[in-house]
Write a sequence for this structure.
């Protein structure tokens, strides 16, 4: 997953299969400015990648274990009746694992914009379930996409602390990770919202 992400099924980063983003590089630069992502943050993200890459699978497993405890969330990643859909889970998990790495390592360029738009689409009726031909609800409401961001951000701190970094180093990496995740999720919301409102 770390060395050969192109072998992950449905991971279309940097390919023509990722839908072209309607956002411009100017849009991205403005979002970076608003979220406060700096050159120093990007350096901290590289350090964070070295700590989180081999924990990404554990992180995503923990996220999913938490969601399973919420019956109203199960139909979005299980079958529409809420029963487990292990095939869908197995197919989509490597891409979610890879997201942890991408948050820390991918350059913020047109390929990045395109793939984040693709991820956003895959949460909406436009493309939900299409990548894995899954039998699941066909739309994840934006409120849950945004709300779950808090879990991803808050729990990252314990994983960043797992390799003995100083509190100051952990603070720096966690702040950078927070900004990067917020930038990703903000771009994911574009397919949900009319251009004039977004």
């Amino acid at each position: 997953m770390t060395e050969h992400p192109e072998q992950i099924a449905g991971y279309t980063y940097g390919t023509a299969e990722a839908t072209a983003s309607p956002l411009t590089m100017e849009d991205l630069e403005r979002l970076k400015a608003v979220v406060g992502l700096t050159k120093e943050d990007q350096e901290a993200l590289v350090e964070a990648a070295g700590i989180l890459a081999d924990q990404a699978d554990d992180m995503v497993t923990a996220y999913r274990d938490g969601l399973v405890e919420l019956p109203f969330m199960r139909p979005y990643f299980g079958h529409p009746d809420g029963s487990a859909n292990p095939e869908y889970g197995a197919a989509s998990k490597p891409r979610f694992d890879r997201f942890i790495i991408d948050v820390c390592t991918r350059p913020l360029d047109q390929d990045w914009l395109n793939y984040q738009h693709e991820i956003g689409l895959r949460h909406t009726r436009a493309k939900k379930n299409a990548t894995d031909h899954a039998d699941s609800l066909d739309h994840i409401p934006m409120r849950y996409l945004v709300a779950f961001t808090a879990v991803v951000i808050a729990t990252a701190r314990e994983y960043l602390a797992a390799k003995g970094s100083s509190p100051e180093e952990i603070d720096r990496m966690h702040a950078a990770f927070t900004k990067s995740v917020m930038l990703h999720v903000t771009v994911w919301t574009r397919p949900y919202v009319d251009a004039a409102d977004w």
